[in-house]
Design brief:
This protein is 60% helix and 0% strand. It is mainly α and 114 residues long. The chain has a domain of 78 residues.
């Protein structure tokens, strides 16, 4: 007895639709992270882990995804990971020089003047 995969009103298999929906949400999440979290390497690392988890889960269901769509997902995940890694490196970039020392106050003896 072959079990049928449930379909929505448009004829798209529900697990496949879930993968596409998750992919769209992931793209939005990564885009927001790249725009708002340049200074937070730990938050960018979380997004990298999220992309990798999505990739692993997508590979488990790759037989449901048409090859052309799988190619788009593959290249998009690769691009997301590359951009997140670059943003993470940029945020952890250290300064080339030490911070300047603050000015010292010198008492001159005159009122109103340091």
């Amino acid at each position: 007895m072959n079990a049928q995969i449930p379909q929505d009103a448009q004829g798209i298999h529900l697990p496949l639709k879930s993968i596409y929906s998750a992919f769209e949400l992931l793209k939005d999440d990564v885009q927001i992270a790249l725009q708002t979290q340049l200074g937070a390497a730990c938050h960018l690392e979380e997004r990298i882990c999220t992309c990798l988890r999505f990739w692993e889960q997508t590979l488990q269901h790759s037989q449901l995804i048409p090859p052309a769509n799988m190619d788009v997902i593959c290249s998009s995940i690769h691009d997301m990971l590359t951009q997140l890694q670059a943003a993470k490196l940029q945020s952890s970039d250290t300064a080339d020089m030490d911070a300047p020392e603050p000015a010292k106050l010198v008492y001159t003896g005159c009122p109103g003047c340091p």
